[in-house]
Amino acid sequence: MHILDDPDRSARVRALLSRARRYPMMDSALIKEQAGAVNAQGRAEPASALALEAMPRFEERYGGLWYPVIGSNGMEHGLQGEPIVEAGTHGWTIRSGIIDGDHTWPLDVLLDGRTVMTLAEKPRIINSSVAQRLEAHAQLVLVRSWPHVTLRTTTERHADPEVASLDIATPDTEATGPADRWWTADGIAIHLELDTWWNARDTWHVRCFAQRESDLPTVVRTAQRMISGTIARAIVNTCGSVASQRREDRSRVSPSTAASSESRGWASAGAVTMRRTDTSGWSSSRRSSSPSSPGTAFGWTLMRDASARVARK
Q1: 285 within 8 A of 249, measured Cβ to Cβ
Q2: CA distance to 12, 46, 183, 257, per residue, from 16 (Å)
Q3: The three-state (H, E, C) secondary structure of 203-218, written as one string
Q4: How far is it, in rounded angstroms, from Cα 5 to Cα 98?
Q5: What is the dihedral of CA 196, 290, 118, 47, to 10 degrees?
Q6: pLDDT-derived band at 232, boundaries 50, 70, 90
Q7: CB 102 within 8 A of CB 71
Q8: Confidence of residue 229 (pLDDT cuts 50, 70, 90)
Q9: Residue 45: helix, strand or coil by DSSP?
Q10: Consecutive H or E run containing 127
């Protein structure tokens, strides 16, 4: 059954897909007729029996699905008329089964349903399933307009951050995957997301959301205690929408911009230094590092470090 026809979708996924579109999908018989494979040596060969089961199953469930999350570009799903599997580091994948519109970058889908993104020639498993990916996107859409702050932590390559027990929120298991972890409670949320994985150390973003601004410092302090090595780094956050901040996460932070922002002053909120400010919007993606024309978004910022980000390849 296609996801848009499934009456058992969670309430938040139904809300996420309320703006979805459904484009034509490939017929199962045509998929099996045209299916092919590219092995590790780059040579074409017949698709395996497992691939001939996985591709129609993926297409029947998600083929033609499009929905927005942050920006106007949406998440595109389906074989797009090319039923091809490729051999990769993590196994056989459905090539470019998902196009992430916010990142303008493809994800391959393993035959068991996990997703893989490759950047700087380094593949990394991102989601445990497409269903988990939908739940994570749905949770982000639920809280994206709340006041929020982004922190950062680093780990050894391929290592998860150490996370202590959390007393103000519980793990959201449906929305949590290998590179995307959520903790939620009434009026608050913490999001741990893998940002870069191709340098000497992995970088993770820790996003703290609070429906009431007065609760935000408590959520931030809790995240700093809960997740090892969490620090504030030159990350801009918006109260009106998470869009500007998340697009900036995927691009280079200008030292001059951070320095000029810092010169405008600070305010203290408990152990967390924050200030209210107008911030500029960004339109760059994983493949770009140029800021767009400035937009205005009223929000919180944490900018203790003006070090430049490493541009995506």
Answers
A1: no
A2: 6, 37, 19, 34
A3: EEEEEEEECCHHHHHH
A4: 19
A5: 160
A6: low
A7: yes
A8: confident
A9: strand
A10: strand 122-127
Give 143's pLDDT tier (boundaries 50, 70, 90): very high
pTM over 0.90: no
Give the pair of three-digit tokens for residue 113.
């349903």
Q: How many CB atoms lie within 10 A of CB 78?
A: 22
User: What is residue 233's three-state secondary structure?
Assistant: coil
> Tokens 């990142």 correspond to what residue?
103
Across 216-241, b (16+ Cβ under 10 Å) vs e yields bbbbbebbbebbeebebbbbbbbbeb
Angle at which helices 130-143 and 49-62 pack, to 10 degrees?
A: 30
Amino acid at 86: E
Q: How confident is the model at residue 228 (pLDDT cuts 50, 70, 90)?
A: confident
Cβ–Cβ under 8 Å, residues 45 and 39? yes
Rounded to an integer, what distance in angstroms lies between the CA atom of residue 302 and that of residue 44?
50
Give the tokens for residue 69. 């999350």
Burial class (CB in 10 A: 0-12, 13-18, 19+), 215: middle
- If you count them, how many residues does the chain have? 313
pLDDT digits (tens, 9 = 90+) for 73-110: 999 999 999 999 999 999 999 999 999 999 999 999 99
Residue found under tokens 């305010």? 267
In 3-state terms, what secondary structure has residue 251? coil
Alpha carbons 108 and 86: distance in angstroms, whole number: 9
Assign 253 to helix, strand or coil. coil
181 touches 189 (CB < 8 A): no
Residue that is written with structure tokens 């999001």 in the block? 191
Ordered by start, the domain boundaries in the chain are 3-127, 144-302
Nearest to 239 by CA among 209, 263, 202, 260: 209
